[in-house]
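Running log. JK asked me to keep both predictions on one page so they can be read side by side. First protein, sequence followed by its tokens:
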Amino acid sequence: MSLFDIEVTTIRGEQQTLAPYKGQVLLIVNTATKCGFAPQFTGLEKLYQTYRDQGFAVLGFPSNQFMNQELEDNSAIEEACKLNFGVSFPLFARIDVLGADAHPLFKHLTEEAPGALGIKAIKWNFTKFLIDRSGKVVQRFAPTDTPEKIEASVRKLLEP
């Protein structure tokens, strides 16, 4: 199965696959609005605004699996991201990113790009996966890796 065949639910409850993003460079991030790393939303939005016209998108997937740092309601998540951080990049419905109930997208991502020491599990909020235009996971970034640190890798994938 291709990354673009995976079904997801938008923050507003609409079912879709990732096919609309085929041919784009993607940064897929598991997010949490109450996490200490939440200020990264601002940097993620800046990356999105800077490179979206070149075929780049940030896709945010809220999760509440790490110390209950995400709001319960998808509309509240969307509102918090917009009001507190100016987020305009696509957000999706709250999901599980690890364990038996992990969403198929994150099962795929962690299989393709294990973390340190080959550990596949997501360890915390704001783990980031950089995807090339063909849908291949090319790099996994730790929660501590800021959007500013990731920018050079994004630019490299956007080069013709």
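And the second, directly underneath as requested:
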Amino acid sequence: MATEHPTRRSLLAQAALLGLGASAWGREAAPIAPPRVLTAWMRGEQSWAGLWTPGQTPRGVALPARAHQLLVLPTSAQRQQLQALVLARRPGEYLLRMDPVRGKALQWHTMEDDRYLGGHAALSANGKTFFTTETDGESGQGLIAERDIHTLEKLREFPSGGIGPHALLLEPAGTLLVANGGILNLPETGRRKLNIGRMDSNLTRLDAQSGQVMAQYRLSDSYLSLRHLALAPDGTLGIALQAEHPQNQDRQTSPALALLQGDTLRTVDWAASQVPSAWDGYAGDVCFAAGRFWASAPHAGWVASWSVQGDGLQIRVLPGAGALASAGERWLVGGDESALLYRGNTPQPQRYSVTTPWDNHAAMLSFT
């Protein structure tokens, strides 16, 4: 669906309606130490992954196809320097272990027959293995694979609890939470969504040792796809949603965020007067920072945030707002032409020029 980017004037008007005034555009604050950001991007028709630093041309590795998540790997006796794992966008067919500082590919791994990546991974508790979301190309079944962090080879696999598993995370208790987006994609049909009328999105909690399903959670609206996850310190889970309703008007009023608190999964609905400008039902990324959940809207051009209770809506305007990353009190959002770096919940960010927009996700490595 083609979506026009909102104008600066319309977004400022929306911010004023929400009581945010011109601060939503972010008056420049006192300088914050610039970050190093691990991300992916497109340059022409070529996909890349690597490091972005303010004022410098991104340095990275050329990829055979677009990347999605980039996962920082823990150091060890075998890995004393910074390394990262690059996961192909779904339905993905490669993994890459890379040295982002030198912009060097260290190890490529082609996916096994009839196995396709869902674009995300999570480290195991001991840091020796990692879990990936995958799809069985023959049956369409969602899978979780555990892989060796050195060889990238698959050690075992078990069902994800649904179709189209996307983001996942390891909970402090050692269980896995998996967002089964409910949408089937296969390489022979590319990004075509094969089962929209039958989609069944859910959030599944799995025993990471046995693979057993411990709990499943669903929203009442079956057209809401649960996609990306962020965990608050109190255990509340924020889930970014992407609406797949056949009618535009349903997508334009659909929620951007759901919360899992205890055993209750619920949407955070807009008040009638609060639906932000140009909203089309597509939340790109989510993170937790400064005591709040932040969800980006790339097509609409803003970032929205809520408390862990799902109230206190705030809007920060940034055309093309997509990738989010947080590190302590700092959090960052990348847009079409700018990246905004915030300290805490201040409305005044440090603004950096972005000549090559980032792809879906980013991770802050350190501050220079």
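Observation for JK regarding the second prediction: Confidence is low (pLDDT under 50) at residues 1-28.
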